[in-house]
Write the structure tokens for this entry.
Amino acid sequence: MMGDQEYGIDPLVVQTVAQEVQEIRALGVEVAIVIGGGNIYRGVAASAEGMDRTSADHMGMLATVINSLALQDALEKMGVFTRVLSAIEMNRIAEPYIRRRAVRHLEKGRVVIFAGGTGNPFFTTDTAAALRAMEVKSQVILKATKVDGVYDSDPMVNPKAKKFERLSYIEVLNLGLRIMDATAISLCMENRLPIIVFNLAQGGNIKRVVLGRKIGTAIGGK
């Protein structure tokens, strides 16, 4: 969400993401989104600096709500009906997360944004994404990142880093690849939910992934 800024929300980035979501929604695809809050506040980083982990994580969860509202605003300005469902109750600005309500919104063609993580400290938004995906019976998790897939080392630091086209869940865990946290990967493995890691910065990539183009790195599946 922050684009080239050091922190905060770049309206142009939000608008670009919203346009891509609008395109895949127009294809008839049911879309549920989980957004992190690292552009505003990172609970783990604050905890490392001495803040109580529970308090830091709660602040991080609130940051995801801010991002969710920003994306909702951009989508609705484009005529895409959107609902923000928060794991932390704040009825004046978002609906409380209820699984059946989320499923009903998806069935009605609305884009659903899951905010507030899992509602619990010590769990990342990756785990929240995996959990919500299971609950609403998603077919795939699309993990949007800054790089075009999974590498054996950081491609921004190592120009010789090797890109993986496909990985099993076990390979991700054994190799210590930091795509998603181990809890999220394990949850996807137990339920055979595939993950596709791709570059969000390249325009049109969300649609390409949805249409089955081979971009990024595919993880697991049946």
Notes: The mean pLDDT is 93. The chain has two domains: 1-138, 140-222.
